[in-house]
Amino acid sequence: MDSTRSFGEYGRRRPGGGAKLRSRRGRIAQNWWSQRFVDALERGGDRGRLQRGRTYARAGQVLDLRPRPGAVGARVQGSRPRPYLVEVTVRRWTPAEVDAVVATVVENPLLLAPLFSGDVPPGLVDLLAGIGVDLLPGEAEVTYDCSCPDGSEPCKHAAAVVYALAEQLDATPATTLALRGVELPDLLRRITDAASGPSAPVEDLAVHVGSFHRLAGDLPELGVRRRVPARTVADDLEEAVLGPGAAGTADALRVWYVALDAQDQAGGGQSRA
């Protein structure tokens, strides 16, 4: 095939082929984590190149978007027949930072449920920021590499990749962890191991089981304090940990816990509220 004809036929119409963004105008990032990721791009980028990058991303010109630990790669169809190769690199967490993330989740077990569902709760980001560990990369932690002749950072092709990635972050928030070099299954495994601690030797377990059956007398009082009237376990749910969707949870559940407490008291049982 004649290369000049190929350029004339395909270059001017800029074929897409990639996934087009759901956002057709305005901001691309919809959630707080993807917005903060895009902010790092837009603070240091040229406005014109950013605008063309958004156009490329919305037209489906970002091909084969491949996030992986510490980076995201893609091909971007520009005005030439052959797509450009783009790689956006994010600074990986150090081993000490990963240890701090594990310790933070172990100390705040309410973070586990969102993580196991593939979400990244805002509370985790805030807690990590309090100890100097940033989940979302800053401008200085992101580098761009593109095979196009434009030497700016980021060029319009790299910008298109970041915008396409931002929309993927909306759908799969745990990708932010992978960009920091930590795969979510590996992180959860480390958290589970740290929370459970080392296993006792089998012979020690046998001694403890035998001793249990030789216990005499009544079990001691556990010293569980009764709840303050009209206050329930729902009041301990922290919106900062569970996210904005937890607003009103305590009010909705309190009436049921109070009713259960009253039923237990009438039956002479221990309060569950």
Q: Judging from the principal axes of the Cα atoms, what is the shape? A: elongated
Order of helices and strands: HHHEEEHHHEHHHHHH
Q: Which structural class matches the secondary elements? A: alpha+beta
How many individual helices?
12
| Uncertain regions spanning at least 5 consecutive residues | 1-13, 202-213
- Overall pLDDT: 75
Q: Say how many strands there are.
A: 4
Q: What does the radius of gyration come to?
A: 26 Å
Strand order of the main beta sheet, please? 1-2-3-4
Strand content: 5-15%
Q: Name the helicity range.
A: 40-55%
Question: What is the CA-CA span between the terminal residues?
Answer: 77 Å
Count of distinct structural domains:
2
Q: Could you describe the largest sheet, including whether it forms a barrel?
A: 4 strands, antiparallel
InterPro entries: Znf_SWIM
Region (Disordered): 1-23
Protein name: SWIM zinc finger family protein
Domain SWIM-type: 131-166
Task: Offer a concise description of the structure.
This protein has 273 residues and is an alpha+beta fold. The protein has two domains: 3-192, no CATH class; 231-273, no CATH class. The protein has helices spanning 3-11, 32-44, 47-58, 95-107, 112-116, 122-130, 156-171, 175-179, 184-196, 202-212, 239-242, 249-266, and strands at residues 62-68, 71-76, 84-90, 142-146.
Which labels suit this protein?
273 residues, 47% helix, 4 strands, 2 domains, single chain
How would you describe the overall organization of this protein?
The chain has 273 residues and is an alpha+beta fold. The chain has two domains: 3-192, no CATH class; 231-273, no CATH class. It is built from twelve helices and four strands; from the N terminus they run αααβββαααβαααααα. The chain starts with a helix and ends in a 7-residue tail after the last helix. Keywords: Metal-binding, Zinc, Zinc-finger. This is SWIM zinc finger family protein.
